[in-house]
Amino acid sequence: MRWLERFGHRRAKTDLAPAHAPDTAAQMVEAFDAARNGDYARALAIWAPLAQTGVARAQNNVGACFAEGLGVARDAGLAARWLTLAAQAGDPVGQRNLAALCFKGEGVEQDYARAAELYRAAAQQGDGPAQDMLSWMLLEGECIPADAIEARRWALAAAEQGIAAAMTRVGMIYHNALGVERDPGVAAMWWERAAVRGDADAQAMLGAACLLGAGVAQDGIAALAWLLRAKTSGSALAEPFIASARASLPVEATAEAERRAAAPLADAPTTEAPPRAMPERVS
Q1: What is the C-alpha radius of gyration for the chain, rounded to an integer number of angstroms?
Q2: Residues 99 and 122: beta-carbon distance below 8 Å
Q3: Is residue 117 part of a domain?
Q4: Could you report the per-residue pLDDT of 168-204, keeping only the tens digit for each?
């Protein structure tokens, strides 16, 4: 998971003073474009004065640069200071990025409860990655008390924003009957949506579902193709099923599965349309 969202060029609603909003918005766009082109020094030269005057998104972006060492030496302490200012101003990306520092204990004392509080604040403002992380924390129940109902709620919210990891989690919730009735069909539907978006664990679970005919029609070729793709992408969930998938197929079918697994993901058979690649924007 990418915990630190680097930049967003559209301001939060409370970011800019009305008298200077048009000029500041133009500067934020210019800085965002510079950062996208890899010119972080130029971006920081624009963001830093804006951050000093209290523009929350600029404060977040300066903090993110210090957190990741973009255009400046990495400094977790300074990252935390700037992200705290952005979070206190109500910027959801700043809240989410500060939550990541609290979760990892970078620049601040490790504090899971504080991280969850910040993720929730950002999630309530509609921040998809924060909704995803809050869902994970609530489902795992290791850092904060577990709540499968709330975990599902936030996973669905994040999934609606196109976050593949959240889609995979919704599938696991239905697969394992966590706060809901077990439903293999719904689980497989969510795994397929995440699989075509590149989530390796979803690909592994979809492959296993195709192998077993759990929630989808049994399809050995599709099963092996998804499992091989998942293994290549780093999912540890695929390996236990691969031998069985291979054993179920004749040589020609195995070759077809291997061809599918090696093909670009856009060519994988699916009923889901792939999402558009868009830079994240916060309005």
Answers
A1: 21
A2: yes
A3: yes
A4: 999 999 999 999 999 999 999 999 999 999 999 999 9
